[in-house]
Amino acid sequence: MKVKNKKIIYIFTIILITLITMKSYAREIGQLTNFSITGHSIHRTGFLLKQKDGHYIMNLNKGPNHRRNIKVRHRMVNYYGEARSPWRLTSEGDRHPCANNATKGYTYALDITRQYAWDGLETVNGSWSPENQEGEW
Predict the structure, then answer these.
(1) For 63, which of 26, 27, 84, 92 could close a Cys bridge (C-beta 3.0–4.6 Å)?
(2) One-character DSSP codes across 60-80
(3) What is the pLDDT of residue 84?
């Protein structure tokens, strides 16, 4: 076998081993588009798969100019509605990593409500993810 062919086989083998051993995935992100919430009811997002341990992310877009930014209470829950995090508070325009005791490989949703029980109906926009980005806490 020629030296050139050996080099090609060696490089191909290295690339193949690298591709097989790499753990890559796309983080699931749930969109909150005109998501209606009130203070007296809990509203649940869709379920997303948690693929690694760590914080979940709540990211709320800034509210419209005609009203003040509202605060939203949220917590992560499993399929059975059991809490996997304490209630957290996030204002519109903020992004928060939130601690939880959820396990990777399972699906989770967020329970979302307004800050106070007497708060009326509003809609919020933003996103959430059951895990943080690489390299972040």
Answers:
(1) 92
(2) EPPPPTTSPPPEEEEEEE-TT
(3) 97
Which among 128, 125, 97, 127 has a CA at the least distance from the CA of 37?
125
The first and second tokens of residue 66, run together, are: 């005609």
Cβ contact 60:71 at 8 Å: no
pLDDT (0 to 100) of residue 81: 94
- Chain-centroid distance, C-alpha 134: 13
Of 134, 131, 137, whose CA–CA distance to 50 is shortest? 131
Output the pTM of the full model.
Answer: 0.77
Lookup: tokens for 16 = 């193949």
Residues of the chain with pLDDT under 70: 1, 18-26, 134-137
DSSP SS3 for 95: strand
Whether the CA torsion 112, 116, 118, 121 is positive or negative: it is: negative
* Three-point CA angle 82, 48, 27, nearest 5°: 135
